[in-house]
Amino acid sequence: MKKKGFTLIEIIIVVIIIGVLAAVALPRLSAQVNIAKAAEAYMQLGVLMRKVQECYVQNSEDYAACNNVTAISGYSFPTGSSNFTYAFTATECANASACGATATLKGGAAADVITLTLNAPAGTVTKTKGGIFSTLKN
C-alpha cells in the first residue's frame, strides 16, 4: 500500500522556488513604490513651479512679488503628505536668480530628496533627485 502525501524533499524544493521568486519580485515592487512616490512629489512641486511662473506673468514679470507661497493667489502649497514634507525656497525669486521647492521623503535618509528649481531669468525648471530616487529614469 502506497502512502499519500508529500516528501520532505518535495516541500523543500517548493519552498526554495517560492524564495527565489520572492527575491526577484520584491526589489521590482520596491522600485515601483518609489516611482509612485516620486510622481506624487513631482506633481506637487510642479504645480507650485507653474503657479510661481503664473504669478510672475501676472505681476508685470516681477519675481519679487512671488517670493512666498502666500503671495501666490489661489494656491495653497502643502507642507506635507503621508510620504513627503515639502518646502519652498523663494527668497531667491526676489533676486530674480532661482527659487525652488523640495520634497523630502518621510522616514527616509536625508538624501531621499526631490527638488525642482526654477531658473527665474530663463523660466526653466530643473529636476534634482537624491537617495533612493536618484536611479529613477524621470
Termini separation comes to 64 Å
Give the integer mean of the pLDDT values: 82
In helices, the fraction of residues equals 25-40%
Q: What is the total domain count?
A: 1
Give the H and E element order: HEHEEE
Count of helical segments?
2
Q: What is the spatial order of strands in the main beta sheet?
A: 1-2-3-4
- State the total count of DSSP E strands: 4
What is the CATH domain class?
Alpha Beta
CA-atom Rg in angstroms: 24 Å
Strand fraction equals: 15-25%
What are the segments in which pLDDT stays under 50 over at least 5 consecutive residues? Answer: none
Q: Indicate the CATH architecture.
A: 2-Layer Sandwich
Structural class of the secondary structure composition? Answer: alpha+beta
**Biggest sheet descriptor:** 4 strands, antiparallel
The coarse overall form would be: rod-shaped
CATH names the topology as Glycoprotein, Type 4 Pilin
